[in-house]
Structures are given as structure tokens and as C-alpha cells.
Amino acid sequence: xxxxxxxxxxxxxxxxxxxxxxxxxxxxxxxxxxxxxxxxxxxxxxxxxxxxxxxxxxxxxxxxxxxxxxxxxxxxxxxxxxxxxxxxxxxxxxxxxxxxxxxxxxxxxxxxxxxxxxxxxxxxxxxxxxxxxxxxxxxxxxxxxxxxxxxxxxxxxxxxxxxxxxxxxxxxxxxxxxxxxxxxxxxxxxxxxxxxxxxxxxxx
Length: 204
Description:
Number of domains: 1
CATH class: Alpha Beta
Strand content: 15-25%
GO molecular function: cysteine-type endopeptidase activity
Protein name: Caspase 6, isoform CRA_b
CATH architecture: 3-Layer(aba) Sandwich
Helix content: 10-25%
Largest sheet: 5 strands, parallel
Number of helices: 4
Organism: Rattus norvegicus (Rat)
Radius of gyration: 19 Å
Strand order of the largest sheet: 2-1-3-7-9
Subcellular location: Cytoplasm
């Protein structure tokens, strides 16, 4: 199934059993970790313009009903503490959880003010075996950062695409949601990266 197929399929009416329950008391918590300046020893440039991104995201997420909490230029230890505090709090009455990192990055790591942190260390705190009140709920991580030194290759979409929706590729597995009774601990994560792996994010 192509990306375009997936787009058109997403516009169809979905089986309620395949949709997330999004009518809890709260939309949920949205964390924004914004990093503009870094410890001199890391030799990382300032991220000019990041505060505008932070403010725009704060405004938009607030409009969507999230309780937004912003943190600026936290040290690695401070960032991990904030993440741990939220992961151990109750999300029973929330629809989902959202976390945004605006920073420099390298491979599978994100930079705090004074050190880099493995992304899996952060997301791991919200897996089902660690954060049970978010089991079966969307956990969305948006990471705006470089992931390497290679520039991402631009592509041009085709004018005409095949968006046939009545067939799926043979390698796509269809699951009957009503028959699934257990979930893997790492289920329901949506990881959004601004660039592909090993790619460099240039300011535009």
C-alpha cells in the first residue's frame, strides 16, 4: 500500500472498533522541550527562530484542548526528571499524550542543554508496562532536530497517482480489532521526525 493509498483510506469511515476513544474528560498533556542555547563544550550553534516555533505550537495545541507545558533549555537531568514526573502521573481521564522536542539531534539522540539523550530512553517511560494509564491511547512524539550530517533529498510528487482503495498489498496484514485482547507494551506510539534518519535539518 502506497502513502497515497493510506491517505485516501484514512478519509473513509472507519470501524469504531479501530478508532481511539477521544471523548475523555481531558484532551491530555502536551510537553514542549525547546532548546535554543547549549553548553559551550558541545560546540552546538544557537537555534534561532525556535522560540517562534514554540509559541506557535503552544497556541495551536491549546486550541486543540491540550494542557501545554513548555520548558526551555533544560539540562539532561532536568529534562529526564520532567518526563518521569509526567509518565508517572495519571492519564486515566485523558485522550492521549503529546511530546515535542525542538533541539539539535544526532542519530537516535536528542540534545538537552548539556548532553544528548537517547530517544528510546524518553519514549520507554511511556510504554504500557511503565505508564498503564496511557495503555491503548495515542502517545505522540514530535522531534524537530537533525539526525545526522546528510542533507535530505527533495522529491517531486507525481501529478497522477493510483489511489485505488479496494485492495491492499499482499504484505499488509489486516487485524480484526475486536479479537485482540492484549497489546504490546510499545503499542500506540506515533513518532514524527522532521527529517529522515541520518539527515541534516536546514533552517528555512
